[in-house]
Design goal:
heterodimer, A: Rossmann fold, 2 domains, six-stranded mixed β-sheet, 27% helix, elongated, B: mainly alpha, 13 helices, 77% helix
């Protein structure tokens, strides 16, 4: 079901441009030399551990925080001078809070008035997310508050959507609806920036991935290139003694357990398959981690990136 | 701006009603007290020494204007009105910012200037309406028990109290808008309010700089509207409001939200 009608935004326009952004809070650099470019019709995922600067980046984009240096352009205007243009921006902060007055309906009405947009699409999205418009805002639990926040952020079909930890407190059904809505927005030409601790469950949606660590861009590239570069692990069980010398040319760190060999074959397993020709194989199992798991493995949940290798076409 | 103002008024309507009930209770209790004390002869046997009575402004307690000026149209009315005003001023920007409510408004394309103006206007409407209602209630009670006080002077005094409330609302608003800290805004505005009152009540050398002197020093219950004081207080309120605006336009909003989660 598509609630959001097309809006005819030309895909390909640069809607979000961040150049050499530095933000210092107190004496501490929270962001340092960050670049980000998001075109219309593109989904950019900004991932990283807690405290890496994701929320700061989004808050600078919507002019809640002012850049210490560098430039931030949203919909063609600097964030400071483009207040009116931000009516076409949807922002989901984290954590999100609403004034504990009125109902879901009145909160959506307030958001619509602020955006200068009709309230009907807000209500449609809220219903789609399973919200009862008559519910008291003060009575919403964490899940309900997050769903209301999503309706408020995306109800006016923004040209730019900036979502901070959008999957927080959502169940599988909510996530499915949100993913559908984001896909529709993207297809309509909106630029979407998702800031999240983990890439999933939006891994399939992301066109571009930027990994932040300690306020700097640790990795930046297209999601498809990163997926292609993910290493595949193979577990091969031979009928006889395995050709260890040959296999070690693929992965010197291979593990041997009797006739079974476990080795990392990189993104292109063709070489392994050629090498196995002529041998009797009892079983072969190949696994490739998801991009999300690979990124978490890369930055180690909450730990900063130190001494780790680079995936994909990043620096 | 209208959207921001109406939203703020709606959010604060409950507290406005509570303040209004408090002021109504004050008027209902204290105005009739004069007749009761007069009938019981309490004014003839003052319990306090003359010097103490002078300091507390109780020297003319035996007259209707003296009684009301020393109670409900003096410290008591001021206490409630100024407290309400400081609460509204501190909550308008800083309170909403601390609770995270400001994110939606600013990120949704309302220029900061209009956010500030809209919230200041809502605070002003709340304070002025409380002051006007309080003045009307006191005026009605004065008429009802037939106290010999000129009603326009009751209005003049009510206006003076309301202007003092507006001034402290502006100070709280400005400090809150400049720092994003509602607690700090209340402390600063409350301290200034207390200092100004004490300086005026004790008639120290700095009393001439106190807005309480500008507005209440000429006994408006007996002499009417202190126009110079009105102008000075309005100018001071505007100056505080403007300083808050300048600071709000140039600073980070909700900085603590990222500051508390970011690592060194």
């Amino acid at each position: 079901m598509t609630v959001l009608p097309p809006r005819g935004i030309p895909a390909g326009d640069v809607l979000v441009r961040v150049e050499d952004l530095t933000k210092t809070i107190g004496r501490r650099p929270v962001l340092s030399g960050v670049d980000l470019l998001v075109h219309g019709g593109e989904v950019a995922a900004v991932v990283g551990p807690h405290g890496s600067g994701k929320s700061t980046l989004l808050r600078v984009l919507v002019d809640l925080l002012r850049p210490s240096s560098g430039s931030v352009t949203l919909l063609g205007a600097t964030s400071r001078r483009g207040a009116r243009r931000r009516r076409s921006v949807g922002f989901l902060p984290a954590p999100v809070r609403f004034q504990p007055v009125g109902t879901v309906r009145s909160t959506l009405g307030y958001a619509a008035r602020l955006s200068g947009a009709p309230v009907a699409p807000f209500r449609d999205l809220a219903r789609r997310l399973g919200l009862d418009l008559r519910s008291r805002t003060a009575g919403l639990d964490v899940n309900g508050t997050q769903r209301l926040a999503i309706a408020v952020a995306l109800g006016h079909r923004p040209r730019v959507a900036l979502l901070d930890e959008p999957s927080t407190a959502l169940d599988a059904n909510d996530l499915s609806v949100l993913t559908d809505v984001l896909r529709e927005l993207r297809d309509d030409g909106a630029a979407i920036v998702l800031a999240s601790h983990r890439l999933d469950p939006f891994a399939d949606l992301a066109d571009h991935v930027t990994l932040l660590s300690q306020g700097t861009v640790a990795l930046d590239g297209s999601a498809s290139a990163m997926r292609r570069s993910l290493p595949t692990t193979a577990a091969v069980t031979f009928a006889a003694s395995p050709p260890l010398a040959d296999l070690a040319t693929i992965d010197p760190g291979l593990e041997v357990n009797g006739h079974q060999v476990r080795l990392t074959v990189g993104p292109h397993p063709g070489r392994l398959l050629r090498l196995l020709a002529g041998h009797t194989i009892e079983s072969i199992e190949m696994t490739t981690p998801s991009l999300s798991d690979a990124l978490v493995e890369y930055y180690g949940e909450d730990d900063p990136l130190e001494g780790r290798s680079v995936i994909g076409d990043g620096p | 701006m209208t959207t921001v103002t109406l939203r703020r008024l709606r959010v604060t309507f409950g507290s406005w009603l509570i303040w209004l009930l408090g002021l109504a209770a004050l008027a209902a209790v204290y105005v009739p007290l004069y007749r009761r004390y007069e009938a019981e002869g309490l004014f003839r046997a003052g319990p306090l020494p003359d010097g103490v009575s002078d300091v507390l402004g109780l020297a003319n307690l035996g007259t209707p204007t003296g009684f009301l000026g020393a109670t409900i149209l003096g410290p008591l009315g001021l206490l409630v009105l100024v407290s309400a005003a400081i609460t509204y001023g501190a909550g308008a920007v800083a309170g909403d910012e601390e609770r995270g409510y400001l994110d939606l408004t600013v990120s949704r394309g309302v220029p900061r200037f209009w956010v500030y103006v809209g919230k200041a206007l809502a605070s002003g409407v709340s304070v002025v309406s409380l002051g006007a209602a309080f003045t009307a209630m006191v005026g009605w009670a004065v008429s009802a028990i037939d106290l010999p006080i000129v009603l326009t002077n009751v209005v003049a005094t009510g206006m003076a109290l309301t202007l003092l409330a507006i001034l402290h609302a502006s100070i709280a608003l400005a400090v809150g808008a400049a720092t994003g800290r509602g607690g700090l805004a209340k402390v600063v505005a409350g301290t200034i309010a207390t200092a100004g009152f004490v300086v005026w009540a004790l008639e120290t050398s700095g009393a001439r700089y106190s807005p309480y002197t500008w507005l209440l020093g000429g006994r408006p219950l007996e002499t009417g509207v202190p126009w110079l004081g009105v102008l000075l207080t309005l100018a001071a309120s505007l100056a505080a409001w403007f300083l808050g605006l300048v600071a709000f336009l140039s600073r980070d909003i909700g900085r603590w939200r990222v500051d508390s989660t970011s690592r060194p």
